[in-house]
Specification:
Chain lengths: ~210, ~210
DNA sequence: GTCTATAACGTGATAGAC
DNA sequence: GTCTATCACGTTATAGAC
């Protein structure tokens, strides 16, 4: 099983390298050679372990969406947390995730554009969202008059927009404000606290 | 000059086709053959008029950024409009722009990721923003105690996030809410009015 | 499992006729 | 200016030695 362990290890090395390169350059712009070089391995091993560039990409893509959407659904469906707490948890969770993997959001939106089937088939997004515990809580809050914007779709767009957009627009924003990486990350940390406050203002302002 | 007119026309046809295909697929994934087919013209004409795929791309990219950033700067620098009016104008302008060109925002963020030099060189974003009339107005509002979030950078991130993110996340959002194109556009139109209201709530909530 | 060498293919670009 | 035919190159993928 020493052999097995080494196999597993090289396979994981290739996947990790693929993730790094694909996140940064996207499917069409990355060459299998880039992945092999990043992994410090021979080009032929990629086809040996993953059959093709496309198969490897689909694995990375699937796992990425699973992490991204899974974490969101997990928080939205937690019956032990309030609506307010859910907002805080989502902001903190995604700001940490994207601070560690800054290329992930742009990778997701770019590749979903180029391969819409790849995600629509994989996850029953619609049911997962409309049947979530969050929706029940939100409707209750609307009925109780605590929320003046009654559309949960606007709510989730606004929340995700406030969280995700700075990471997607990072190059533009950093350039226009003259920020370095540390300053940018500092600002994102501040947003963990301010986004929940803003969202509460937003859902009462309509 | 009949000849000249025809030339101009084919050149413009190629540019229009290139814009369509590039917006949808990005630089790396589009083939010059795709552009030729979209334009209903011969492959060789692309090189005849634009020398190379890259040159053609750079023209499209430049014009796109010029339109996108130019419109924003124009509104931010207008000395005749109040801060509140500027928010309304920006929301209305970009929601209309992206409703007509839905692939534009994702094109911009994807290609800036892949060619960061291409934009950073082209426009002095930093000075344009920090020296804009908007910044003066914003600082005045802060000094007058009208705005409790004193960081204009957060302000612009939030505004752009609320406007742009729904268009970037469109495939995900449409799938998770089960919307068709008309319903989506309807929601975006609603946001022309609600975003300014939300932003006012946001800048007073911190 | 890992390497080298190479096949098979797609794509950007051009030469040259019209 | 526009077309057809083709070159030149880079890239994915595989065959076969080790």
């Amino acid at each position: 099983m020493g052999g097995k362990d080494i196999n597993k290890s090289t396979e994981e090395k290739i996947k990790a390298a693929a993730r790094t390169v694909l996140y940064k350059k996207g499917f069409a712009a990355t060459r299998t050679r880039d992945i092999a070089e990043e992994a410090g391995m021979n080009l032929a091993l990629i086809n040996y372990y993953f059959r093709s560039k496309k198969k490897l990409f689909e694995i990375i893509m699937s796992e990425t969406i699973a992490v991204f959407a899974g974490k969101l659904m997990q928080i939205l469906n937690d019956q032990a947390t309030s609506l307010e707490k859910k907002i805080e948890l989502i902001a903190a969770c995604y700001i940490d995730m994207f601070t560690e993997e800054p290329e992930m959001p742009t990778f997701i939106v770019s590749e979903i554009r180029n391969h819409p089937e790849a995600m629509l088939k994989r996850i029953p997004v619609k049911q997962a969202f409309s049947q979530s515990y969050f929706i029940k809580q939100f409707e209750l809050a609307v009925a109780a008059g605590k929320v003046t914007e009654p559309n949960p779709f606007h709510f989730i767009m606004n929340l995700l927009g406030l969280i995700v957009f700075p990471f997607i627009g990072k190059p533009m924003l950093m350039a226009s404000a003259g920020l370095n990486k540390t300053q940018f990350n500092q600002l994102m940390q501040e947003r963990k606290k301010s986004i929940p406050i803003w969202i509460k203002a937003v859902i009462k302002a309509t």
